[in-house]
Amino acid sequence: MYQKKKHKLYISDLLDNPSIAYPAYYLLSETMSKNELLHSAIISLHSFDFSYFEVPRSYKDIFAMLHSGTFPIYKEKYIVGYFGNKMMYLESNGWKGMPSTEDIFKMDNWLVC
Questions:
Q1: What is the model's pLDDT at position 84?
Q2: Mean of pLDDT values over 34-51
Q3: 85: which DSSP letter?
Q4: Any idea what DSSP says for residue 48?
Q5: Nearest to 14 by CA among 25, 5, 6, 22
Q6: What pLDDT, on the 0 to 100 scale, is given for residue 4?
Q7: Of 12, 14, 53, 100, which residue has the fewest beta carbons closer than 10 angstroms?
Q8: How far apart are the C-alpha atoms of 1 and 13, rounded to whole Å?
Q9: Can you name the residues that pair with 90 across neighbouring β-strands?
Q10: Residue 29: which H helix or E strand, with range?
Q11: Measured between alpha carbons, how far is 36 from 60 in angstroms, rounded to an integer?
């Protein structure tokens, strides 16, 4: 089966002096590597600038972001997306399935804008 080519999106291409340098890059599809909304979430996460984010009041706030194509942040560590009816978090090697743990249900662990 045909594998889509993945691109490395380097943090240094988005930020000159990131507060958090790890991971140094994210492995993404061509479409996702050009996604401006994802870029702004990555910049917020790696600059540790959450001034546009707030703790959600309910799960509706999280899912409103996911359905609109924007990316909430989980535990100030992971960018979360919603693809194919699955919540996924972004790691350096790409999107991974989000495990359903007790912490995922705590509103304090989420940031939305």
A1: 87
A2: 95
A3: T
A4: T
A5: 25
A6: 75
A7: 100
A8: 32
A9: 95
A10: strand 25-29
A11: 23
User: Burial, 68: exposed, middle or buried (Cβ in 10 Å; 0-12, 13-18, 19+)?
Assistant: exposed
Query: Rounded distance, CA 47 to CA 83, Å?
Result: 26
Residue ranges of the alpha helices (H) in 48-103? 59-68
d(CA 73, CA 30): 22
CA distance 26 to 73: 16
- Per-domain boundaries in the chain: 6-111
Reply yes or no on whether the pLDDT at 111 is more than 70.
Answer: yes
Spell out the residues 6+ positions from residue 34 whose beta carbon is closer than 8 angstroms to its own: none
pLDDT at 43 over 60: yes
Taken as a whole, the chain contains a residue count of 113
pLDDT tens profile 26-37: 999 999 999 999
**In this structure, how many other beta carbons lie within 10 angstroms of the beta carbon of residue 58?**
9
Residue 19: phi and psi, rounded to 5, are -70, -35
Tokens, residue 62: 């999280």
Record the tokens describing residue 55, joined without a space: 């703790």
